[in-house]
Amino acid sequence: MAQMAEKFLLSRLARTACLLLLALCLYGFLASGWLPALAAATAAAFIWTTPAVRPAHQQQPWRHINSALILLLAVELCASLWLGPASLNYWLFVLPLALFATLPLALAAVITLVCLTAVAVSDLTVSVGPDRLQLIGSLFLTTALSCILVFMREYKNRQLAPLRRTDELTQAASRDYLSADLHKEIRRSEREGTDMAVAMIGLDTHLSSTDPDEDIRAILPRIGRFLHSQLRDFDTYYRVADLQFLIILPGNTSAEAAARAAGIRKGLGALLASHDLDLTVSAGVAGLNIGDTADSLQQSVANALRRAQRQGGNRTQSYSAWSDQHAAGAGPRAAGAQPHD
Q: pLDDT category, 339, cuts 50, 70, 90?
């Protein structure tokens, strides 16, 4: 709820800032101040292309457009040091923070250094008064404070990096860490000579006659808590797709993993039924074989889940290379499936 409120308030603030800057742009044109009007229009366009206004702006080409606009604004503000008006120079105070918030650190630092150099050069080429000297001193102090804030941000990001391993809805581990963690488990299993298997749980939404997506998302936290309750301390589970989860099961053979996956599948089915959702759950299982890698094991268990869903869903499917190649039409039992109850 707090994150939703933060996004809502940030969006409202960004849209309000755009309107104010557009009003300032109109005032600049009416007052014959073309450079302030242009800077205001550029700043409004810069804010409008940020994700704060619309989440879709996180994608390309919006990110490139956003970076180009902040660079254009930096050029315009530096030009105001010579062309005026003096009031536009004070916009330079917010430029370092905007640069560090939008561009990569190295590029933002270079552009900030160029802007400070332009300020110092303008001090030598333009007659300055007390106000201008105060501006220059304040700008350097503001830049120093901005650097401190950026350092604190980067330090915080490094400290919080381990906490970002989990999906906020289901508390499952993020897919970004799956390949690395699975590779470590494979290496450990091979080194200790123990079994290992993976299971993939998926909701059979393609078999439903209605669109239950919003109802499912409402109970995703309950699904995550249920999965967590079914796992041992050293098992890990990952949200690999919107409604699919992969579970790493160290020390389990394929048969043991299939039995556990079947139990999880039935429990999830009961959970969905208790929320009046007419949905079934399928599971795919793959055991570690000689020569398997993290990628091949993920592909195997995904193929097993896909086969279970193609055979009507509501079943557990164990993967084998032979069945995947030769038993596509031989029925669920020939392909290693455990049919629904």
A: very low
